[in-house]
Specification:
By secondary structure, the chain is an alpha+beta fold. The protein has a domain of 78 residues: 2-Layer Sandwich (Alpha-Beta Plaits). It is built from 3 helices and 5 strands. The chain has a 5-stranded mixed β-sheet with strand order 2-3-4-1-5. It is globular.
């Protein structure tokens, strides 16, 4: 059966840069100081490729999204704690990118909580 496999699926760790707090360049520089190397974004993507350990790249579709190795533990990282990066799956990054509100506008997300 082509839908089953004994091998676990390994998805990359996505980190969205909160550009209200830090720039993508600042976050990449900080990660480089910790031993990461930025490599070019893969040009062909048929499935979510996973960067090798110690490598990262910028996402091909969302400018402020960094792609890191699977299992990269960042939940207690200083940049997460300070709000410079937000750990979320890639699909959650598309709505604000598609909305692309103009600077200074106000948006209300009325679907974010149960019961709305």
């Amino acid at each position: 059966d082509s839908c089953t496999s004994d091998e676990p699926v390994r998805l990359p760790r996505y980190a969205r840069v909160n550009t209200l707090v830090a720039s993508v360049a600042q976050v990449v520089r900080a990660l480089r100081r910790e031993g990461f190397t930025q490599i070019p974004t893969p040009s062909r993507v048929s499935a979510p490729p996973v960067p090798p350990p110690g490598r990262l790249w910028r996402d091909a579709h969302i400018d402020s999204l960094l792609v890191l190795p699977a299992g990269c533990e960042l939940h207690c990282h200083e940049m997460v704690v300070k709000g410079a990066i937000i750990l979320q799956d890639k699909a959650s990054c598309f709505p604000p990118a598609a909305l692309s509100p103009p600077r200074g506008s106000i948006s209300v997300d009325c679907c974010a909580a149960p019961g709305n």
